[in-house]
Amino acid sequence: MDKNCHILCQLLIKDCKDPSLLSKLNETWKKAHDKGRFHLLDGILYHRTKNTCVMNLEDITLISTILNECNDSVAAGNLLEDRTLERVKTSSWWPNWKKDVA
Q1: Residues with pLDDT less than 70, the chain
Q2: What are the φ and ψ backbone dihedral angles of 57, each rounded to 5 degrees?
Q3: Per-residue model confidence (pLDDT) at position 78
Q4: Which helix or strand (DSSP H or E) is residue 48 part of?
Q5: Radius of gyration of the chain (CA)
Q6: By its UniProt entry, which Gene3D superfamilies does this protein fall under (predicted)?
Q7: Which domain holds residue 66?
Q8: In this structure, are 17 and 33 located in the same domain?
Q9: Coil vs helix vs strand at 1
Q10: What is the pTM of this model?
Q11: pLDDT given for residue 76 in this prediction
């Protein structure tokens, strides 16, 4: 499990704002936590936006699978990048995901 995911799970399980744990998060994760973007349900970490709540991903293999599943065929070219962005956005989240999709 990613260090940041582990720390967030500890914070959410304890429903606390332990400064020693918060200081261990990297900045991207800390900002999202401070905005109340993370939710733990049945042991699965979710990331919330104003319109959706999607599963947080940490495993590079799973991220690659999501990118492949959400991407249209190679023959379609880059014209469908917006569609791929939308598909990933409605299913998954990880830090800097937009860079990985683009």
Answers
A1: 1, 72-80
A2: -110, 145
A3: 54
A4: strand 44-48
A5: 15
A6: 1.10.340.70
A7: 57-102
A8: yes
A9: coil
A10: 0.63
A11: 46
- Quote the CA–CA distance of 39 and 43 in Å, as a whole number: 10
Q: Is 73 helix (H, G, I), strand (E, B) or coil?
A: coil
The tokens describing 41, both together, are 């349900």
Do 62 and 50 fall into the same domain?
A: no
User: Phi and psi of 82, rounded to 5°?
Assistant: -60, -40
* Residues 6, 94: Cα–Cα separation, whole Å: 14
Predicted pLDDT at 80: 66
Statement to judge: residues 96 and 75 lie in one domain: yes
- SS3 state at 59: coil
- My answer on whether 46 and 2 are in the same domain is yes
- Indicate the helix (H) or strand (E) that contains 21: helix 19-22
Q: Is residue 41 domain-shared with residue 65, that is, in the same domain?
A: no
Type of residue at 26: N
Q: Are residues 16 and 48 in the same domain?
A: yes
